[in-house]
Amino acid sequence: MNAATRDKLNILSKTSPAKVLNLLALWLSFYLTKWFKRPIVWGLPYTLSIEPTTACNLGCPECPSGLRSFTRDTGNLKSEHLNIWMNELSTHVGYVNFYFQGEPFIHPKIFELTSLVSKKKIYTATSTNAHFLNEKNAIKTVESGLDRIIISIDGTTQDVYEQYRVNGDLEKVINGTRNLIEAKKKLGSKKPFVIFQFLVVKPNEHQIDDVKKLAHELGVDELRFKTAQVYDPRDQHPLIPTIEKYSRYTRNSDGSYKIKNELQDECKRMWMGAVITWDGKVVPCCFDKDAKHQMGDLQELRFSEIWKSSVYQSFRKQLFTNRKSIDICANCSEGTKVWA
User: Which of 7, 8, 74, 176 has the fewest Cβ atoms within 10 angstroms?
Assistant: First the structure.
C-alpha cells in the first residue's frame, strides 16, 4: 500500500457517524443557500485552521509574518483555550490544521497542542519551514500523533531558496526533512504524511525538475507545486513566474493583471471550515491574514454562537450577492474551485 492510500485510510479512520451527519448537513445547507439566496447553516465546521503563533523566523516577501506588517498582536495559542474549543467541537470536526500565519514550531508547546487534538480522533496537520526539525523535535513530532506535515522547499540551492525564504537556510530544511523521515522509521510509524511544497516564483521556476529529484532522493510522500500570491501583480514583478501554468495571474489587454479564475458569488469554505487566531478570534478563511473580518471572539462567546451569528450570516450573504466586493476574496487561488 502506498503512502497516499494509507493517508486517505487514516483520514477515514478518524470519522464517525456524527461527523458524517455533520458533513451532510453542511453540504445540504450550502446548496439550499445557493438555491434560495439566503444563508442557511446547519451543523458546525468540519475543518479548522488554528493558529499556534504569529511569530516567524523568516522574512518572506508577500507574507505578513515575514514582513512584520500585522496590525494584530504577536502571541502564542494557550493549550487551555484549545482544550475548551475542542471540548465543544470535537464531535463535529474531522480535520485541524495547526497553521494560519507564523511558524508553528516556534510555539513552545506545539507537540502538546497536536497531541491534545490527535487524542480526540481528529486528523491533524501543519505547515512548516522545517528550520526547527532537529532530531529531538522530529521524534516529538511523530510521537505527538501528527497526521500530515507540509514542508516549504522553495529552491534546491541556497542562493535561489533565500530569494523567497529570506533569512532561511536550505540545509536546515533538508536536514529537518531527513530527521523527520528517520524518526518515522525509528518509531515504526507511517505518520506524518510528508509533503514537499514548492512555491513557484520567477527566481526558482528553473528548478522544478531539480526539486522533483530532491523529493525522490529524500523519500517524501508527495511533492506539490503552488502558485504564489502577490499583492501588487504587474509587469516585471520579481515573483510572478514566466511559466504560465504556475502563475496565479493573467494580463489584461490594458496591461493590468487579474487572478485567473473568475470568482463566482459563492464559497463552500464559509460552510465547511473556519480559522481561529492564536488569541481566539474567528475569521472566515485563510486569506484574511490580518484578521480584519472578525466574526467573533472565543474569549467572549462559544463557537456555535459565533458560527450562526448575524455577523457571520451577513458575511455569507455578501458572498452570494457581491463576492468581488470582499477584499480578501480578490486573491483567492481557488476561484470557482473553492474547496479542495
Answer: 8
- The string of pLDDT tens digits covering residues 183-239 is 999 999 999 999 999 999 999 999 999 999 999 999 999 999 998 888 888 878 888
Count Cα neighbours of 198 within 13 Å in the Cβ-side half-sphere: 25
Residue 139 bridge partners (DSSP): none
DSSP helix/strand/coil, 95: strand
Cα gap 205→222, rounded to integer Å:
19
Residue 119's SS3 state is: coil
Q: Which of 23, 101, 78 minimizes the C-alpha distance to 299?
A: 78
Buried b (16+ CB within 10 A) or exposed e, 197-232: bbbbbbbbbebbeebeebbeebebbebeebbbbbee
Distance CA 267, CA 334 (A): 10
Alpha helices in 99-248 (DSSP H): 110-118, 135-143, 158-164, 170-187, 208-218
Q: Is the peptide bond before 284 cis (omega within 30 degrees of 0)?
A: no
Cell 531539480 belongs to residue: 210
Task: Tell how strand 257-259 and strand 296-297 pair up.
Answer: unpaired
The radius of gyration of the chain from alpha carbons, rounded to an integer in Å, stands at: 20
- The bridge status of strand 257-259 relative to strand 249-251 is antiparallel
* Distances in whole angstroms, Cα of residue 118 to Cα of each of 14, 94, 145, 326: 9, 10, 6, 35
Could you tell me the pTM of the whole model? Answer: 0.93
Beta bridge partners of 62: none
Report which of 215, 137, 228, 146 is spatially closest to residue 183, judged by C-alpha positions: 137
